[in-house]
Amino acid sequence: MDVIGVITGDIVNSTSIGPEWRDRIFQSLQAVQADFTTAKIDVKYEMFRGDSFQVVVHPSTATLLIAIAIRIKLISQTPDDCGKKWDARVSVGIGHYDFESSTIVTSDGEAFVLSGRRFDTLKKARLAVQTPWDAVNDELDVSTAFADDIITNTTIKQAVVVYEMLQNHTYTDSLTQATLSETLNDSKANFSLKWQRAKGNLITTYLKRAEKLILTHIR
Questions:
Q1: How many CB atoms lie within 10 A of CB 28?
Q2: How far is residue 5's CA from residue 111's CA, in Å, rounded to a whole number?
Q3: Which of 10, 131, 162, 198 has the fewest CB atoms within 10 Å of its CB?
Q4: Residue from 199, 125, 206 nearest 158 by CA
Q5: Cis peptide before 59 (omega within 30 of 0)
Q6: pLDDT digits over 92-128, tens only?
Q7: 212 Cβ neighbours under 8 A, 6+ residues apart
């Protein structure tokens, strides 16, 4: 059986988001799917119950990257006249894919169960990870709490920069920062400052460590 990643999530304070912005919410999720689906990563998502969604990611090591990208993309797309930043609560489950249905929400397997159960325990947290391995869970429970706090406090302008860096999988390369700053019509200095203030390096350190932990156990 294949090991995959499943993200279960919902939009934070969705009832306070006007209907005129709903398409923009959906477009944000579609953008993540389009931007991160490559020859090496497959991303599929479905919405349900209006403001909830599930995402299937292969390989499983990329699941946390996609989960964080979803949150960062939503924050970056928050309209200027919106009272609160857009965000999502997301729970990542890593495990086997036992039953593949024609729709994601009716598929089943260890990854779906772990993601769903962990989502039900989120409370005030907006990011969580559950794997079949206790040692991995013990470490990620601590580091994920710090990563969650960093992401929650990312500003809209910082999120634009963080999303671009995550999408390009290079994180700290100065040449890439210069190129991406031009894409955003920003100076390299401003781009770099937003990345630093968003604690982008800490986010990517967390992602690399989580990927290494998961990869070690699925090999």
A1: 21
A2: 6
A3: 10
A4: 199
A5: yes
A6: 999 987 756 556 655 678 999 999 999 999 989 999 9
A7: none
pTM summary value: 0.93
What residues contact 68, with CB distance under 8 A and at least 6 apart? 127, 147, 151, 166, 203, 207
Residue 94's nearest CA partner among 212, 218, 219, 207 is: 218
Q: Which residues pair with 53 in a beta bridge?
A: 9, 47
Among residues 37, 86, 217, 71, the alpha carbon closest in space to that of 144 is found at: 71
Structure tokens given for 189: 């200095």
Q: How many CB atoms lie within 10 A of CB 41?
A: 16
In angstroms, the Cα distances linking 186 to 34, 57, 60, 76, 181 are 24, 32, 34, 15, 5
Buried b (16+ CB within 10 A) or exposed e, 170-180: ebeeeeebeeb
Looking at the chain, which runs of residues are DSSP E strands? 3-11, 42-48, 52-58, 88-96, 127-130
